[in-house]
Every structure is written in structure tokens, then in C-alpha cells.
Amino acid sequence: MKALIQRVSAARVEVAGEVVGAIDRGLLALVGVEPQDDAGSVAKLLHKLLNYRVFGDEAGKMNLSLTDVQGGLLLVSQFTLAADTKSGLRPSFSSAAAPAQGQALFDLLLEQARAQHAQVASGRFGAEMQVHLVNDGPVTFLLES
Prior knowledge:
This protein has helices at 39-51, 66-69, 99-116; strands at 2-15, 18-23, 26-32, 55-56, 62-64, 72-77, 120-122, 130-144.
């Protein structure tokens, strides 16, 4: 699994003009699922999402995690993260998980995140979404499980 995370001061996801998920300070995670991913991949990625130190401490150093700052977590499924872009000028999606597997693992990630963290929101799997965010920093990292 991959997650492109962005530290945000605010983020929201809309589907057909309706806000389906929103957070204030925290992390926006665009999540891609690959065929080899499983429940273990979900657990590893969630551990990183909750504990990766990307928030500034009193000295301004990135020493605090999402859990430490009690920030929001906005999960958005994005199969394009699993695209193969190594050759040519058009992405290949053969390296992305099938939709049923992708949805099952994304739903598991969402369920486990809600069980372990107080503020969790999400987009809608498979929907055409508009993501609005204010990247704080900017700070962006690609996490892999």
C-alpha cells in the first residue's frame, strides 16, 4: 500500500458538491492499493500514518506525530498512486489492485483507523471526488507499507 500524505491546516473531500469528509489540522492521505497488499499492509500503513513524525515540536523540529498533536486524518482512495509510470507517456494501471480488493483493503484501513484514532474522515471509494486542502509547510511524503 502507498499513501501520499500531506500535512494540512484544513482539508475536505466533495462528491457531487456535497462534503463527504473534512478535517482541520492533520493529515490528508491519498491511498493506493496494489495486488500484493493484504491486512498486514493495512496495519503497517496505519501505524505509519498515526506515528510518522511530521508535525513541529516546541523547537520547530518534525518530532510530533498525528497521534501526538491529536490531529485529523482524512483518507482518500486513489488508485492512480499504484500506476506504473516508468515508460511511455501514459500511465498503466496494471500494477493497481482490482477494485474489489482495493475497496476491501481501503475499508479495512478506514475501520481500523476509526478504532485507533479519534478524528478520522474519508472520501467515497470509487467516486469522482474533488479534494480541497491547505498544505501546511508545504509538507508531503510518500509512505509505503
